[in-house]
């Protein structure tokens, strides 16, 4: 019998034992850490139970169990990082109101690996943040997006007709993900080629799964599949971006066509204006494309799914939304129109309130992630430099809304 497996097992057990001793020793120091469990295994910590809860839409219950046991501030280990959870309104005010020199917006290592280290969330507080944000906001300003309402209305109607034709039922969340991805590709990124859109949709599906997975880059793991999918996304988008960059330089493409072109135009603008600011790199463009695609379509799909769920459950709200829509139709003349405009949407006040209330009680994001840039404290507990800080405000349970 080979001794190699035995040596591996003994080595792992020894490392775990030493890890426990070191961690116990640290607990005897002068640091006043919150109560909680860092898990049994190094690096993994409580990641596996957290991931399992997230996939089962039980992230809130996972947090509530620990709050009941340890209090509104507790420690754990997630995605390879020691972590402090801070819950409640006061905690939200502390985390979101902290200076970036204290708590900087940083995503868990798995999310950061998929989005890329140059995405807007990761560069907050650095000199690269302002130019990247400026490029995005130049297209994402309300007056720019309002001009795309009619086009979005037409796209949504066409996609609904296509997906529901000949079908009695459809899976809402799956349909909403395809719908919002389609809108994001066309409106935000100017990707109008169907085969390219479909290929990207499949690859981003692997990326979404990898973001909430154990950070092990081994063959066959979910995380590895996500990393490989990201590489294929880069391979697909690189020639598209190079072509657009060339078109912008030649003046044959308007940078305001989409947010991707806005970001690509930064280098051209810097050269023309003799700007001393460091030009944007293709790595930065890629990372922010991936991050914005994830942020724009996945959360929107979740919100739309919960709105449909609420309308299906509450007949009174459904009837009021229909009445809101019919009232607007009547003001337009009662027949089919060329499509909704921003003015039409703004007048549907009851529908707006339904959307806002659903987002209030069922936020599309699990929580806010930060990294402690220097030693700090909250609620009488120490938060060491380098620790991950997660804020989550409890929300109403689905049965109560």
Automatic annotation (TrEMBL):
Q: Which Pfam families match?
A: p450 (PF00067)
- State what protein this is by name: Uncharacterized protein
Q: Which GO terms describe its biological process?
A: isoquinoline alkaloid biosynthetic process; sterol metabolic process
What Gene Ontology molecular-function terms does this entry list?
Answer: heme binding; iron ion binding; monooxygenase activity; oxidoreductase activity, acting on paired donors, with incorporation or reduction of molecular oxygen
- Keyword Secreted carried by entry: no
Alphabetized UniProt keyword annotations: Iron, Metal-binding
């Amino acid at each position: 019998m080979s001794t190699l497996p035995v040596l591996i097992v003994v080595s792992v057990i020894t490392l775990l034992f030493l890890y426990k001793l070191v961690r116990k020793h640290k607990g005897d120091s002068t640091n006043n850490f919150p109560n909680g469990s860092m898990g049994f295994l190094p690096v993994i910590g409580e990641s596996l139970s957290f991931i399992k809860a997230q996939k089962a839409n039980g992230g809130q219950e996972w947090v509530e169990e620990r709050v009941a046991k340890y209090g509104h501030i507790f420690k754990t280990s997630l995605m390879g990082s020691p972590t402090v959870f801070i819950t409640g309104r006061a905690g939200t005010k502390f985390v979101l109101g902290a200076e970036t020199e204290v708590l900087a917006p940083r995503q868990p290592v798995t999310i950061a690996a998929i989005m890329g280290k140059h995405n807007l969330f990761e560069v907050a507080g650095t000199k690269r943040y302002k130019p990247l944000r400026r490029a995005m906001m130049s297209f994402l300003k309300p007056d720019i997006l309002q001009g795309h309402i009619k086009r979005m209305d037409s796209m949504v109607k066409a996609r609904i007709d296509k997906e529901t034709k000949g079908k009695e039922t459809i899976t809402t969340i799956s349909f909403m993900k395809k719908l919002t991805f389609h809108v994001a590709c066309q409106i935000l990124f100017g990707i109008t080629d169907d085969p390219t859109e479909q290929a990207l949709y499949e690859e981003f599906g692997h990326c979404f799964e990898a973001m909430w997975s154990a950070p092990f880059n081994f063959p066959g793991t979910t995380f590895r599949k996500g990393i490989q999918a990201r590489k294929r996304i880069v391979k697909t988008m690189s020639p598209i971006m190079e072509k657009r960059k060339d078109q912008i330089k030649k003046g044959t493409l308007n940078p305001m066509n989409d947010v991707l072109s806005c970001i690509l135009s930064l280098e051209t603008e810097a050269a023309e204006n003799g700007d001393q600011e460091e030009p944007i790199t293709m790595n930065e463009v890629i990372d922010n494309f991936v991050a914005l695609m994830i942020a724009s379509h996945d959360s929107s799909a979740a919100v739309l799914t919960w709105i449909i769920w609420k309308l299906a459950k509450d007949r009174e709200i459904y009837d009021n939304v229909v009445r809101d829509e019919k009232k607007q139709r009547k003001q337009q003349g009662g027949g089919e129109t060329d499509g909704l405009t921003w003015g039409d949407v703004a007048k549907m006040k009851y529908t707006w309130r339904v959307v806002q209330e659903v987002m209030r009680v069922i936020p599309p994001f699990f929580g806010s992630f930060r990294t402690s840039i220097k030693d700090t404290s909250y609620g009488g507990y120490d938060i060491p430099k380098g620790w991950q800080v997660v804020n989550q405000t409890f929300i109403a349970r689905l049965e109560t809304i």
